[in-house]
Write a structure and sequence with these properties.
The complex is a heterodimer of chains A (about 220) and B (about 220).
Chain A lengths: L1 H20 L1 H21 L4 H25 L3 H10 L2 H31 L6 H29 L3 H28 L7 H26 L2
Chain B lengths: L4 H19 L15 H28 L2 H32 L8 H22 L3 H29 L20 H38 L1
Helix pairs in contact in B: 1-6, 2-3, 2-5, 2-6, 3-4, 3-5, 3-6, 4-5
Classes of the chains: A mainly alpha (about 220), B mainly alpha (about 220).
Chain lengths: ~220, ~220
């Protein structure tokens, strides 16, 4: 019970901090909007396959930006304080849930803006939205753990990118396949394999993160 | 680690498999013809890499639970050796692809994923270089190693089976067993695998022992 209370409290704290400054939300939103706008100016209209690929590239970099802030920007003193009052499991769970919420919100806004700007709606919109939500879930879980690892290493941002790219590529490939199915308007049962695989990868990553984070925390 | 019987065994097996690999007769299969002999080199490279990476993950876990420095050294040296075998596996695969599939890099799913799996471990080495303090470096790289290993397993074994691939055993192609992998090839293939795994393990132990000696001489200075 204590764990759940700690998690709830930490999530509330993160959301409150974010709501007061809106720093991460606005920053990443601005990043996404300007990237989409630049793409629009250079390409004007795109084939659906390019539309899909471009969307995932933008989401990938936006997620790295958004999630890396979660660990890399905490000051030493505040981190120490949290470490003394909360268990490491509560910390990683709360950070992951907060990042998942943030990423889902960002993804929905980005998707709406993207569809608006390029004036294209995928054939199977519901499946596309499900795919993007699953994608943001996977990105947040993986990047939260990698961000925790790279925050300990010291050199921050660049290390985060190097560590995260090989790990995220299988997820990205599955996501692109899934969204391609959605764009082509294929029957939903065709995509069940990929959805199952994404969920399994998420569970695997979460389990490994929960096992490993307490070792990382002992400083 | 210091005994020699398995090292001699490994050397004998590799020499045997190489010589007889080229001399023995092989089943005549379409497309493959004589290049099927590459089976004695390409696949053992990958098996050795997997064994070495498993050894590495084992020692990473041991390090996290015990804090003993030697486990960390074992983990990194087995990753080093495993990466070399992985690169050799990709090179032998590319040579084979040139003759059977047309191009050295055929953008086959398993080829791509194998390259990405190696990237995972290159990132591990970069991570190690980024941290100066010994104990911190050992702990963080152990954590990343344990994190990356299941990903590699998924990349190399699960994903190719699900998608279209040119490799036998993936993407709807029958596995090598249902080809004419008859006794003539098995007699050389299994010893080759065992031999290369033993040689890989030997190289790793040599690298590790060199590291220990280096450390000792640094401490004595």
């Amino acid at each position: 019970m204590q764990l759940i209370n700690q998690v709830k409290y930490l999530i509330k704290k993160e959301l409150l901090l974010e709501w007061r400054s809106k720093y991460a939300l606005n920053g990443v939103l601005l990043y996404v909007v300007s990237t989409i706008f630049v793409c629009f100016l250079s390409l004007v209209s795109v084939v659906p396959i390019t539309w899909n690929a471009l969307f995932w590239i933008i989401m990938l970099f936006a997620s790295i930006n958004a999630v890396s802030k979660s660990f890399l920007q905490e000051s030493k003193g505040r981190q120490l304080y949290i470490y003394t009052i909360a268990s490491p499991l509560a910390l990683i769970i709360s950070k992951t849930i907060y990042n998942v919420l943030l990423m889902m919100l960002l993804t929905v806004i980005a998707l709406c803006f993207y569809m608006l700007v390029f004036n294209y709606v995928p054939e199977d919109l519901a499946l596309y939205v499900v795919a993007t939500l699953l994608g943001s879930l996977s990105f947040s879980t993986i990047f939260t753990m990698v961000s925790a690892i790279s925050s300990k290493a010291g050199n921050g941002g660049m290390l985060m990118a190097i560590l995260s790219f090989p790990v995220i590529i299988p997820v990205l490939i599955i996501l692109i396949k899934l969204t391609k199915n959605a764009i082509d308007g294929l029957d939903r049962s065709v995509s069940l394999d990929e959805i199952g695989l994404l969920l399994i990868i998420n569970v695997l990553v979460m389990a490994v993160s929960l096992l490993l984070f307490p070792y990382l925390w002992r400083d | 680690m210091y005994k020699s019987w398995w090292k001699i065994l490994g050397a004998v097996l590799v020499v045997y498999s190489t010589i007889f690999g080229f001399l023995a007769s092989v089943p005549k299969l379409p497309i493959l013809y004589e290049s099927i002999r590459n089976l004695y080199f390409h696949v053992p490279m990958w098996f050795s890499m997997i064994v070495l990476f498993s050894v590495s993950v084992f020692h990473s876990i041991k390090y996290l639970s015990s804090g003993n420095q030697s486990h960390d050294l074992k983990a990194v040296e087995s990753v080093n050796t495993g990466i070399i075998f992985g690169i050799l596996g990709i090179i032998t695969g590319a040579i084979w692809a040139k003759f059977t599939w047309g191009q050295a890099w055929s953008f086959d799913v398993k080829q791509n994923f194998a390259a990405i799996a190696l990237l995972l471990y290159f990132a591990y080495l970069v991570l190690r270089n980024a941290i100066d303090e010994e104990q911190k470096r050992a702990k963080i790289s152990a954590i990343y190693n344990i994190f990356a290993f299941p990903m590699m397993v998924v990349l190399l074994f699960v994903l190719p089976r699900l998608s279209d691939s040119l490799h036998p055993g993936n993407g709807g192609n029958p596995g090598f067993n249902s080809y004419d992998l008859d006794q003539r090839m098995r007699v050389i293939f299994y010893p080759a695998c065992l031999g290369w795994i033993l040689i890989g393990y030997w190289i790793y132990t040599l690298l590790y022992r060199t590291r220990i000696l280096e450390q000792k001489s640094n401490n004595n200075l």
